Amino acid sequence: MQDELFGGEVPARRSRGVQPAPPEADDQALAAALSPHIHLGTSTWSYPGWEGLVWAGKHSEATLSKTGLTAYAAHPLLRAVGIDRGFYRPITASEFQRHAEQVPKGFRFTVKAPSLVTDALLRSEDGRRQEPNPLFLDAVTALQTFIEPAYEGLGTTIGALVFQLSPLPALRLSRMNEQLDRLHALLLALPKPPAGVLAVEVRDAAWLCPDFVALLRGTGARYCVGLHPKLPPLQEQLPLLRALWPGPLVVRWNLNRLHGPYGYEEAEKLYGEFNAMLDPDPETRAELARVIRGTAGAGQDAFVTISNKAEGSAPLSVRALAEAIVKG
């Protein structure tokens, strides 16, 4: 009608907010072929460089951080996401609830515990000044700053609540029995989550011993496979998973081994906008796909999050991993 009266085309209505990229038919087919027990995702969701992969249109990191989660969760393959920022500052129950309200049924969160509990050292912002942390693996602090807010706010969207234990100073490494006792006491004090699992990820191979397996088994916590150059390759971590079988699988693919244990900054510079797979790691991907396939095939959940620093672009890594799982 307006065309007829005034001539010209009617301007298209501008959509508001962050919109998802149109789903690709191949991704939809892959998603339909994946077991509902498999929850793949990225380590966070706020990267502007994912335009066309996850987002339709350009958005700032701040906008994506605040309002991009719904668009992220609309991607057919992204059934999980990590929340790493709680490592630096505890997250409130209301913040967790806002996240939970933005995702569909079946979506799961992997959340890192605050460093206030998981780092044996208190560090300055530049990382140079360090002093002992009196709250390291303190159960009361863990409950108040992490467990209770996450249980209240995330509820049944919990996938894995991860205590990622930072590298230990030399003195604590020389007294691993004390650290194992601390961890055991912490896990025993925590109530069972309303969904998902509690998990422990480490940065020192010294943790990977029979006593560590025994305390995880005794407390019902899971081992979070950390794919990071500070730890042995995935193949060498599998005996620990076998010792804890059966149970859900938790994996965080953090950093490509070629960058070495301190290569985060190098990887970030190399990978730029994180929109291309620049350092594919087909060996790790194939082994991981095999473990995920077996876990889900036995009726157990798999919660897997991938960083951009794993291969260059986390959404593309998720797609390649899904293909490896489905094609077997």
TrEMBL record:
InterPro entries: DUF72 (IPR002763), UPF0759_sf (IPR036520). Residues 1-24 are annotated as: Disordered. It comes from the Bacteria. It holds the Pfam family DUF72. This is Uncharacterized protein YecE (DUF72 family). It comes from Roseateles saccharophilus (Pseudomonas saccharophila).
